[in-house]
Amino acid sequence: MYTKPFLKWAGGKYRLLDKILRELPSGTRFVEPFAGSGAVYLNADFPQALICDFNSDLIELYKHIQREGEDFIQYCASFFTPENNTPTSYTELRDRLNASSGARERAALLLYVNRHAFNGLVRYNSRGGFNVPFGKYKKPYFPLEELRAFYRKTRSTSTEFMAMDFRSVFSSLKAGDVVYCDPPYMPLSQTASFTAYTGNSFQAQDQRDLAACARQAWENGIPVVLSNHDTEATRNLYSSAIIKQFTVQRFISCNGANRDVAPELMAVYG
Ligand SMILES: C[S@@+](CC[C@H](N)C(=O)[O-])C[C@H]1O[C@@H](n2cnc3c(N)ncnc32)[C@H](O)[C@@H]1O
Hints:
Strand content: 15-25%
CATH superfamily of the largest domain: Vaccinia Virus protein VP39
Number of domains: 2
Bound molecules: S-adenosylmethionine
Number of strands: 7
Radius of gyration: 18 Å
Distance between the termini: 27 Å
Number of helices: 10
């Protein structure tokens, strides 16, 4: 039994935890430069953690849970009302998220839109505005127990959350760190690209920089495990790592009727 993340997140690793955790050696500090919903952080067992993502609303959400616990969880719950589950209220609250400069309010609204938006998508336009349409759920789920479990994790593991680019995360590594990277994936084909998590898109140069950072970290004695699609391009990128290959069943449509099997790899430097 693993601890479930409280957010829905594209590319979430909950179902792959067995495979990922097995590859992580022990160490003092667990470092995740692409945290997303935090599925791996929640279930990895290290005394310390550095949890990062480019998405500053996401990191603020984590920081507020860590700092305020139940008070902040109840503030988040206050947005989950039947009155706020209409297209008009949704649009108003989404606009409020995009206009607000208050970190606490933005953090709570991110959780609101995550559970009320179409398919739980988190997607931003090029100006950084959250732009997913209303999801029409009968009664959006408020993840109370999952939020409490996240709070407990931030207390039992000495955790620092930071909003930053992965290159800065790699430059702050130290002896005893163990790194797991789950970047936006390389497209399986030229046309199949989905990388708009934060309004920026993750380009081929970013993939090359990440591979170089991982190699450099390993040369400095820091183990790094990375996930990605299994393609000729990723095999070339990670040619100096040990490659573990497997397939993942993906649910393409919202009713789960269309399934596809995508080859994935884990590159292990360590
Ligand atoms: C595939 S998701 C991670 C999913 C996560 N492992 C989970 O289980 O939910 C990729 C994450 O990378 C973040 N990201 C995109 N570009 C980034 C960058 N340049 N530096 C750091 N994080 C970035 C996105 O905001 C997104 O949360």
